[in-house]
């Protein structure tokens, strides 16, 4: 009785094809991404290369490339788009400062407050400001704002 041959499924064929593509093109795509990444950050380049090959693995069933040159062009396009998407996302997620206070308060030593809190008849607390607790620039800006509102 002849031995049964193991039939490969389409998923197995895609996995084998991807393994071959990865082994053949990974060094070239990594170099391409390293050249695209700003500042020579090799760790970022490796991460983006992995992302590009992940996209290639997801879309391999759509790939119609028949030659190595066409396959490299397809992978290079995916890699460039991955780098572009990374920088687009990075540009749109810039950190915003949590404290938008007056610039003159930054990097100043902390002093004990000269003011105090006192209970008010309404149940709320009010603040009394002692000498030296106010910034002259801020005082001037507030004075101008109050005058503008009165007009």
Would you kindly provide a brief summary of this structure?
By secondary structure, the protein is mainly α. It has helices at 10-36, 42-59, 68-92, 136-150; strands at residues 116-119, 125-128.
Architecture overview:
The protein has 151 residues and is mainly alpha-helical. The chain has a domain of 83 residues: RNA polymerase sigma factor, region 2, helix turn helix motif (Rna Polymerase Sigma Factor, Chain: A, Orthogonal Bundle), CATH 1.10.1740.10. The chain is 56% helix and 5% strand. The protein is built from four helices and two strands; from the N terminus they run αααββα. A two-stranded antiparallel ribbon has the order 1-2.
Give me the count of strands: 2
Helix content: 55-70%
- Which regions are unreliable across 5 or more consecutive residues at pLDDT < 50? none
Sheet with the most strands, sense and barrel status? 2 strands, antiparallel
CATH homologous superfamily of the domain at 10-92 - what is it? RNA polymerase sigma factor, region 2, helix turn helix motif
Mean pLDDT over all positions? 79
Q: Strand order across the biggest sheet?
A: 1-2
SSE string, helix = H, strand = E?
Answer: HHHEEH
Class computed from helices, strands and strand pairing: mainly alpha
Q: What's the alpha carbon Rg, rounded to whole Å?
A: 32 Å
Q: Output the CATH class name of the domain at 10-92.
A: Mainly Alpha
CATH architecture of the domain at 10-92: Orthogonal Bundle
What is the CA–CA distance across the termini? 104 Å
Global geometry: elongated
Q: Work out the oligomeric state of the chains in this entry.
A: single chain
- Number of DSSP helical runs: 4
Portion of residues in beta strands equals 5-15%
